[in-house]
Amino acid sequence: MKRHGIEAFPDWGLLACWLAVVEAGSISDAAVRLDISQGAVSQRIKALETQLGTTLLDRTTRPARPTSAGLRLFEHACVILRDADQMVESVRNVTGAKRIIVRIGCVDSFAAVFGPVLVRELSSASHQLRLWSGITSALDTAMEARQLDMVVTTNSFAASTGIRRDPLFSEQFVVALPRGLKVPRNSTLSDLSRRLPLIRFSSRSVIGQQVDSYLMANSDDIERTCEFDASDPMLALVAAGLGFAITTPVCLWQSRLYAPDIRVVPLSAFSRHGSGYPSISRTLYLVSREGELGTLPADVSEIIRHAFESQISTATARLLGIRHAELFPGLDKARE
Which residue did the predictor score with more confidence, 125 or 133? Predict the structure, then answer.
């Protein structure tokens, strides 16, 4: 078998750059993912081409497309980098080394509610936690670019290979109203919107898109007014009597400062043509990469589920004055 010097093999950093170019679809988008300049990305790709003695990008197209050799390299690089991650983690496990930094991304409401629990539990295990928050689409992009180790998301990543996803819990959407507002029986959400505007999650967010789809499915064409990415400003307006919102228990627990001025009712409190509105829920997952981080993803999932089932779900149901079953589907069965 022919032997090669170490200089014959591409640097892993160059391979990671090539993965970003192919996955992002362009050099400019890859530069954004990697947080470096387009020129730096181009230089790395040219260095890779020189080292391999082949053309990886067809630069006659706009944007440039991978050649057949480039696609073959992409397939091998995916395997090599995945195995490299597993190698590092395996060595750490054997030697008893701890992972110094753990980067977890989550939406704002989750960070506010579960952040203190994660920081306390992981810090005691000698991990240094970096907790990022933002809207789901930005977190998912950061996960794909390997800027995060784990993400708490409502996206299932079902179509992604090499991805592990652990369901954490599900929660029902509810309607948040100003405390003194009386809603006539058999009202629709459209009827309510003619009395008070709907304060929405922005359409940039997954939770906002889910609410919009629900309203369309139930023939509620409600005018767009105020939109927010976060719960606090949205529920502040509801508490001030300036609108109503469709939100979730965890979002309400995050913004419990406004609870004294808010009344929460299930969607079934509204009806159309004599039938109550159907329920709608979201499931949160912990997403990580298969074969990486050892037992840490399972440990983090257990920390979150235990905190949710033993503390947060009970406190939230008590705060909102609604039975567990109307807020958290499946929780009672999980307790059995």
Answer: 133
Name the residue among 325, 326, 201 with its Cα closest to residue 251. Answer: 201
* Residue 304 token pair: 């979150």
Residue 199 to residue 233: CA distance in whole angstroms: 9
How far is 323 from 316, CA to CA, in rounded Å? Answer: 10
| 12 HSE (CA, 13 A, CB side) | 8
SS3 169: strand
Q: How far apart are CA 18 and CA 144, in angstroms?
A: 14
pLDDT tens digits, residue range 35-94? 888 898 899 999 988 988 899 888 888 888 889 998 999 888 888 887 777 666 666 554
**190-194, 242-246, 268-272, 319-323, range with the lowest pLDDT:** 319-323
Crossing angle, helix 12-24 and helix 38-52, to 10 degrees? 120
**Residue 162 CA from chain centroid, whole number:** 17
Q: Are 317 and 266 in contact (CB under 8 A)?
A: no
Contact partners, residue 280, CB within 8 Å, separation at least 6: 172, 173, 210, 214, 267
The candidate with the shortest Cα–Cα distance to 54, out of 70, 42, 43, is 70
| pTM recorded for the entire structure | 0.67
